[in-house]
Please model this.
Amino acid sequence: MPDLKPSPRRKPKPKSKPAIPAKAVGRAVRARTPKPIDNATVIEIFRRFHAADPEPKGELEHTNPYTLLVAVALSAQSTDVGVNKATRNLFPVADTPQKMLDLGEAGLRERIRTLNFFNTKAKNVIAAAKRLVEEFNGKVPDSVEVLETLPGVGRKTASVVVNIAFRNPRIAVDTHIFRVTNRIPLAITKTPLDTQVALEALIPDEYLLHAHHWLILHGRYICKARRPECWRCPINDLCRYPDKTIP
Model:
């Protein structure tokens, strides 16, 4: 008669965790998102930026409003260092719209071929130079709205040009400024345009002219995307970012 062995006891299946409702996830995310800082804190932040660097400068090399316009247009999807290397061979021979037309699209391509999308950029720069010569007597307009109508010129490029070349207090929002604005947060925004409108409304007039440079340099060298260097941040005590880094 065969041995009758008791069948092994099956381990009970672990109870599956109930799925977290999407609404609960949304509430948790919102709970971690700090509210924008108050006006007094905004003033103190920019007071500190001003004290540390009263006259901040952009890092793109240029000699006049036109070369600034070209440099900023070329900087899309490229580093300032890379653009400067290319324009050091370009601007000595093409520092006006007419000289750029004389150089031609092929000549321009050869001088900027180290940059991303150099073919498209060359085409746009030549087309913009043609319009500047034909419609604006070779001058760069001091108007964001007019500059935006030029080939290859968007809101960011136009705002940089009028800010630096004509000292028009506009804020050009790039990835650095968008990140810093929402981290501090100076404002909670979803698009670059929303960010520009919010910043230009809340930053005090006495700091607005240089705010673009302070914020972009802060984002580029301290409030970095992957790991902000909060331990050396001059506004660490004012910032509400919940995931501050500790060395």
